Amino acid sequence: MKITHVAIYRVEGGGLRPVLVEISTDEGITGFGEAGVAYGYGAAAVAGMLEDMAPHLAGRDPSHVRAIWQDLYDHSFWAKGGGAITFAAISAIELALWDIKGKALGVPVHELLGGPVRSEVKVYANGWNHEYDDVAKWARAAARPLKDGYRALKCYPFAHELPDGTFRHVSARMVDDSRFHRAVERVKALRAEVGPEIEIMLDLSGGVCDDQLVRFLDVCRDLDIRWIEEPVDPFNLAGLARTAARTAIPIAVGERVYGRAGFRNVLDTGAVSIVMPDIANCGGLLEAVQIAGMAETYNARVSPHNCASSLCSAASLALCAVIPNAMNLEIYPYFSDSNSYVQVLENPLEREIRGGVAGVSSAPGLGAIIDHKAIAPFKVFDSGATATA
Prior knowledge:
alpha/beta, 6-stranded parallel sheet, Mandel_Rmase/mucon_lact_enz_CS, Mandelate racemase/muconate lactonizing enzyme family protein, lyase, Mandelate_racemase_C
């Protein structure tokens, strides 16, 4: 089997811009992967990176996943040292190759990596209150995911919510006094709203400086917070260690860390209890498995970051199925509320979650059935390359 051509889709809708790559073969088997830059800036850049890499895939055997990954990593030049755009492109290609290999063999990708260690994965809800910018409504919005069976919720207490359901993180490393007190009251109100049995995770996105961070962590001390995510910038290694010394709340980091080397540096601080690789930008499925194995030697668990299309959710579920130290998986169950949201799959995982858990798929490859009609208008590149012997 040989790779014949590569197509790239820059999907846009519902405030997201996922970039998908389709790799086709001479045996009619295709695989899809996703680059983890669905929000913020970077979609055009990673689509360009994928286009640059496409000629180096033509004629290759797609089953040689590791060899292709190593070639792209070694010869892109910019991959060494990490970086969102290069690593997202490599991740998307790697995921598509696993998808092809699983389909060719008629097995889910987790069977190719030792088989599943669990039949279902615990999930948590994010994005359930972005349309509220106060305290009371922001906290009461938790009623919806709880009614839908979620038993764990993540939120952004310092974020500024916008009327269109999107939000902005902190700017300039600080918030004014009113927004600081609003963040404090939000967390208190949320715990009062959901009661003691529901898990709460707080994502700070490295937003505030130490003076406000320390005061905020002190308030959270008695609220049974499951983790504080990105209390400082993920590459502020000294800051991570300093924060861990000041709080008993576990620290989670990783959505903006790339490759094994990046995670090794984070874990070496001794500050991090949960690592959060994004399968679509950390280097792909096998890289994430290796990151999880390394995390286990540091006594840390894994909660994959997942904030993209439902294709990325399917790939992340496969990761959680195969690693023993998986903690839970991030899900945005209400992305589809937006009328402009583009659902790229015919069988999105988000529709199958019951009681806060997702069943591990037994379908071949990544278990994702692409809605070709939905993504067709967003094709921006097709190599049309012909494989050579």
